[in-house]
Amino acid sequence: MLQSRRTLSPTRHAMLSLGGAVTFFGIWYLAAYAQLAPPQFLPVPHEVLEKLVALMNTPFSGYTLQEHLLASLERFGMGFGLAVIIGIPLGLMMGWFRVLDEIISPLFNGLRFVPPIAWVPFAALWFGTGIGGPVLVIFTGAFPPCLINAYRGARYVDTNLIEAARTLGLSNTRIIAQVLFRAAMPSIVAGLRVSAGLAWMSLIGAELIVASSGIGYLLVKGQSALDASIVMAGMFAIGVVGVLIDIALRVFAKLLAAPSAA
Amino acid sequence: MSNIVFQNVSRTFQRDNKDFVALQDINLTVEDKEFVAIVGPSGCGKTTCMRMAAGLEFPTEGRVNVSGEVVKAPGPERAVVFQQFALFPWKTVHENIEFGLRAKGLSSGERKEIIGHYIRLMNLDGAENAYPNQLSGGMQQRVAIARAYSLDPNVLLMDEPFGALDAQTRVVMQEELVRLARVNPRTVLFITHAVDEAVYLADRVVVMTSRPGRIKEIINIKPIREAEGWDAHSKIEDVMDLSSFVHLRTHIWKSLRDEHDAMAMH
């Protein structure tokens, strides 16, 4: 079986990727031209692309596609940022102070199985259509990976390093900030990528219900207008932005790893 | 005046709800500027002795005093060199040595001077900006020793510092340590299971029994070393050839061997 996972040459890799895409769009075209579904539900790919360009130039539901995306990214940034600011220090502290671990872990483990989408009605009750609603929902999606990975990173830090730091005379605060945090970094960065992905996905869920702008809102409006090409163009934009966020975090992780990598 | 005093020290662990005596009635004083090595079979608690002096573990009974004060927590006045080097992988050689000096609150000028001094002393010139994973094991342990010395500690605690090194590197490091001990005499507690190393480096060698760990005998090396002129030889193999060295080594070796056999009988 290992044989089938052997590394491929770049050309072979490119050809296979291209082949996958060609097959996908080929089947799509065939299905659309065969009228397997009415055209307003199953548009052909180039119509979706045309719609995408049109949405970028003329406002739909109040804003252009970029403006919707920007509104979404702002909420994403706030929810994700909040999760990072709270989740990482809390995770590290839970890894360091056993008492804190004992207090928070049961509570956290109960709450983290409530999916972000289940927070939407609650968020709507509390915040209406204000920015607080989506931010809360995004936060619930982004928070667990931040906390769990910081916690794990802290728990599995080489005890030799902690003891070395203590014998060098470092205070607890310094050890948490300069040894624990730094040693847990690979785990934390891996958590950030998962967290950002979940945040972006939760955001769309939140905007489907509690927002008057944003990419999720655009999807709902497209659905009301019975225009599948708008919905699909929106979905495409969501995918592209998601990939871009992941790439940005991967670059960030590489930059962090660089000094000691060689 | 910096010394290490173990006073009626015992250490008991709980394992499967049963008490497990690791150390029993340890009475030992490492005098000011004295180099004492503890040898013993594995699991005899010799590392626990070092860890109690460091403040990383605590006695169940008795007490451990360093420079007249009861050890309550780790601190830079009791520097430790670990077997696994314990260097911070994200810090350069320079930054690793600097870490403890920063915590001490030294100014950047003072830090630079001290680091430069120990980099030269430990032959680390040119490696200042390397990361630990770019260095050999021997070089990494040089950094760890430089880091410990740079804190200007009252006592140095070394837990099998050369145990993870290959035989050739170990010999070089042992010679370096003897050289360092002459330039910069310190109160040292050195844990090892290598008898050669203990006899070569120490003023006194403490032999421990297997579980529970007790002091079996203490061999005074220093008078013999001075009388037989070991220090006239710069190479470890020349010292190891001397009959006085061979005699001491064989004596300690037999003493340890009895412990090993006693443990096998259980």
Structural description of this entry:
The complex is a heterodimer of chains A (262) and B (266). Chain A is globular. Chain A contains eleven helices and no strands. The two termini of chain A are 33 Å apart. Chain A is mostly helical. Chain A has helices at residues 10-33, 45-57, 65-96, 98-111, 120-127, 132-155, 159-167, 172-183, 185-209, 215-224, 228-261. Chain A has two domains: 1-36; 38-261, MetI-like fold, CATH 1.10.3720.10. In chain A, helix 3 packs antiparallel against helix 4 (98-111). Chain B has 266 residues and is an alpha/beta fold. Chain B folds into two domains: 4-77 and 160-265, Rossmann fold, CATH 3.40.50; 91-152, no CATH class. Chain B is 41% helix and 24% strand. In chain B, the strands form two sheets. In chain B, strands 6-7-8-3-9-10 form a six-stranded mixed sheet, with helices on both faces. A four-stranded antiparallel sheet of chain B has the order 2-1-4-5. Chain B is globular and about 55 Å long. Chain B starts with a strand and ends with a helix. Classes of the chains: A mainly alpha (262), B alpha/beta (266). The A-B interface holds A 158, 160-161, 163-171, 174, 178-179, 182-183, 185, 259-260, 262 and B 54-56, 73-76, 78-80, 82, 84, 86-90, 99-100, 103-104, 131, 133-134, 147, 151.
Condensed summary:
By secondary structure, chain A is mainly alpha-helical.
Gyration radius from CA atoms of chain B, angstroms: 19 Å
Question: In angstroms, what separates the terminal alpha carbons of chain B?
Answer: 43 Å
Looking at the structure, the CATH topology of the largest domain in chain A is MetI-like fold
In N-to-C order, the SSE pattern of chain A is HHHHHHHHHHH
| Unreliable residue runs of chain B | none
Structural class of chain A: mainly alpha
Number of helices of chain A: 11
Classify the secondary structure makeup of chain B into a structural class. alpha/beta
CATH superfamily of the largest domain in chain B: P-loop containing nucleotide triphosphate hydrolases
Mean pLDDT of chain A: 88
